[in-house]
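Progress narrative, work stream C.
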Amino acid sequence: MLIGYVAAYLDRVNVGFAKLQMLEDLQFSQTVYGLGAGIFFIGYFLFEVPSNLLLHRMGARVWLARIMISWGVISAAMMFVETSGAFYALRFLLGAAEAGFFPGVIFYLTQWYPASRRGKVMALFMTGIPICSVLGSVISGWIMQTFDGMNGLAGWQWLFLLEALPAIFVGLYMFLRLDNSIAEAAWLTAEEKSSLSADLAQDAGASPAGTFMDALRDGRVWFACLIYFCFVTGLYGVSFWLPTILSDMGIKSPLDIGLLSAIPYAVAAVGMVLVGRSADRRGERRWHVALPAALGAVGLLLSVVFAANVVLAMAALTLATSGILTAPPLFWSLPTAYLRGAAAAAGIAIINSFGNLAGFVSPYVVGGLKDFTGSTAAGMYFVAAFVFIGAVLALAGIRPRK
C-alpha cells in the first residue's frame, strides 16, 4: 500500500516540478497552472464515492490494480500536452482515474487493523507523501536536468513519461499478489487469522456496520469533511508550490530545488511515525492532530517572514511541512473509529472527496494571488489560515455516539 501511495502521489504532484519548464514552453500563466493543478480534484471528487463502493463490492485486489494502471497511462499522456485545454482535460481524467485509491486503502486497512493500532498504521501508510517528496524531488529535478532535449523531448515531457511507469508496475503486482481479506491470506496461520478477526470483531461490537445512507446522514462525517478540507488546503499548498517558493528565493537549478525540497519531507517522515506511535501509546487523538497542524500554520507564516534568509526560510518550511503532513494520518483514526461496513466505505470516500476539493481551491487561489501580487506570500497566508482553522476544529473532536 505504501509503495502504491508513493507512486500515486508522485503522479499527482510532479506537475509542480514540470511547471518550472512547462509554463515557459507552453506559454501558460500562473493562473492556468493553478487551475490545471487543481482541476485534478474535480474528477477526483466526482468519482470518489462510486469508486470506493465498487471496491467494497469487488475487492481491493482488482479495483486498486485497475486504479493504478489507468492513472499511470493517463499520467504518461501528459507529455503530449500542448494547449491549456488538453492540460485541463488530462488533469481531470487523472483525478477520475485515481479516485478511490486513498480512501480505498484507508478502508482496506480497517479490515486488517483494530482502532487501537491505526494511529501508527495510518502514519506509516501516509509516509508515502514525504517519501515520495524526498525521492521524487531529487529524481524529478535530475530527470528534468539530465533528459532535457533528449530525442527532441523537453525535460518535463520525460518527467511525465518516466514517473508514470511505477504506477503501472505496482498496479500489475497488486493484481497478482494482493489479498482481499484476512481470510484469504495464505501467509497467516489459522491462529493468527483468528486473533486478528477477534480484535476486529471487538471493534465492530462497539460500532455496528452501517449503510451508505447512514454515512450520508451522520453529522460527524460532514464535520470531518470540513476539518479535512482545511488540512488538505495546507497539504497541497506545500506540495504544489514548494518548488516555486524555493525558486523565488533565488535557487534556479531544478536539481538544487529538488535536493532542498527533500529536506522538509525527510524530517516530516520521521515526525509522522513518531507522533503516530505516541497517539497509539497514549490512546489520544485530538491533540495529536491539532498541535502538529497549528505548528504547521506557524511554520508557513515564518517562511514568509524569513523569505530573504534561505537558512531560516528552510527551517520554517521544514516546520510547516512536518506539521501539515503529520496531522492527516492521525485525523483518519477519528472517523474510522465509528464507521463500519458500507458506511465506512462511503463515509471515508465522502470525507476524502470533499476534503480534497481543497486540492482544487488551494493551488488555484495561490496561483491567482501570485499573478496578482507577484509573490507567494499572500498565498501562504491564505493556506496557513485554513490549516490553523483545521487545528481548532479538530479539538472539538469527532466521537462515536454512545
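Work stream C, second folded protein:
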Amino acid sequence: MRLALIQMSSEVDSRDKNVAKAMDYVDAVADERPDLVVLPEFFNTEYFPFYRGYPDYLQYAETDTGHTITAVRRKAIEHNVVICATILEEEGPGLYFDTSFLVDAKGEIAGKYRKTHPGGTRSLEKMYFRGGTEFPVWDVKGFRVSAIVCYDNFFPETGRCAALGGAELIIAPFAAPAETFWESLMRIRAVENGVYVAPCNKVGPEGEYQFGGASMVVDPFGEVLCKAGSEADETLVVDLDRERVFAARQRYPMARDRRPEIYGAISSTDSSVRGM
C-alpha cells in the first residue's frame, strides 16, 4: 500500500480556505498515486478546544453532507483514492464527536472512528464533544486499517483494541504541540502491537498556540520510515509492506503470549483500584 500524510497548518475562522488548501495538497500528492491519504485532526478549522467558547464553536460542527466532507468525497472520486478526514461531527442536536471519516475511492463513507478519549488538560475537548466507544477496522487495498485520534494514542489500550480487531496499520490524525517523547511513543505503539503507526499532525501557529508537526510513519519493528519537520507544511508518501507485519509478529509474538485472563485491573470499574 502507498500511504500519504498531509501535514498542514490551519488558519483561524477560515474553514473554506483551510478545506481548499487541504484539497490542493490532495491534488499534489495524487501525482504519486497513493492508496490512502490522511489529513490532520481538525484540519478544516483552528483547534478550538483550546478556548472557552462553548457553545459558539459548535458552529464548526458538520454532518457527513456538510461542506468539508463533501469536498473530500469529490476529491476521493477525482483521484480514485481513499481519504481519512477528521472533523467535529454533528451526530444530532446537541450531540457531537471528534470523528475520522474514511471516504473510499467512490466517494462513499466507508466508516467512522469517533475519538474515544476527549482531552481535558490543556484542551477543553470534553466541553465540546463526547467520546466514542468502538475501534473499527477497515480494508484498504488489502491492508487492515484503523484510525486512532490524537490523545487516544496516550492509552495503550486503544492501539491494542485496534490490533485485536485485526489492524495492521493505525493512522493517527493529531492536533498536538511538540513533545519530547513524541517519536518514542509512536515507536512503542508500533512495536507493542506489531503494526505500522502513522501520526499526521498539524503544524505551525494558530493564534497563541504552536503545533509540533513531525508527522511520521513507523514500521512494526519500530523503525521510522519517514518523518516531516516541525516548522512547515509537508507531505509524506511511503510504500508499506504487509509482510513486515507478519515478520514483526513472528519475531515479537505478543499475540501468542498475552494473558487477558489476568488483566482484569485494566477494565475494572471498582473505585478501590489504585493508580491509573
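Residues 15-30 form the longest helix (16 residues). No further action is required on this item.
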